[in-house]
């Protein structure tokens, strides 16, 4: 009986050793559940933003750097009013699965500030919640026909009243008022509601 017990112990130890050896180097064995938390008043995207050619916020971007398949679907000066009605027309024209928002000097092809994302992220409806945002593709997105539309850095907070008034990392912020008003900011330059020297642009792609 003692001999049989020792054999069983030996077999058990051998099985453990074999199991340990079978785990490849660098592989972490899960010991619990993982989950991601949303942001204040919003959420984090789990879509993975697949198929996007650019990550995060870009400055001084040439349209040719976007990759193939992207085309301009909207271009207006900052003085052009945005409202629920004009947004419907704009989104009908910009109807593809990926969108890029940007701003530029009038007459220039270079986008001073731009970011791209999956359509559902770029159009994440925040309603009237001023701090709401959705983090995706390294960008904080927000949209609402009742306040404003735009983006900020992924780690930055937003304060929409009605447009984003936050001052941290201002060069990474774009905001267009959507309540029958003009655009507001292109990076650190603000108060552009009546400006014809800056343009709002949208590109789209599938």
Architecture overview:
With 206 residues, the chain is an alpha+beta fold. The chain contains three helices and eleven strands. The chain has a six-stranded mixed β-sheet, with no helix packed on it. A five-stranded antiparallel β-sheet has the order 2-5-4-11-3. The chain is globular. The N and C termini lie far apart (71 Å). Mean pLDDT is 83; it is low at 1-39.
For this entry, give a set of tags.
206 residues, six-stranded mixed sheet, five-stranded antiparallel sheet, globular, 11 strands, alpha+beta, 17% helix, 3 helices
Blueprint (SSEs and pairs):
Blueprint: H1 2-22, E1 43-44, E2 58-61, E3 71-77, H2 84-93, E4 98-105, E5 111-118, H3 119-122, E6 134-136, E7 139-142, E8 148-153, E9 174-177, E10 183-186, E11 198-205
Parallel strand pairs: 1-6
Antiparallel strand pairs: 2-5, 3-11, 4-5, 4-11, 6-7, 7-8, 8-9, 9-10
β-strand amount: 25-35%
Q: Give the helix tally.
A: 3
User: In angstroms, what is the radius of gyration?
Assistant: 24 Å
Query: Can you write the helix and strand succession as a string?
Result: HEEEHEEHEEEEEE
Q: What's a concise summary of this model?
A:
By secondary structure, this protein is α+β, with helices and mostly antiparallel strands.
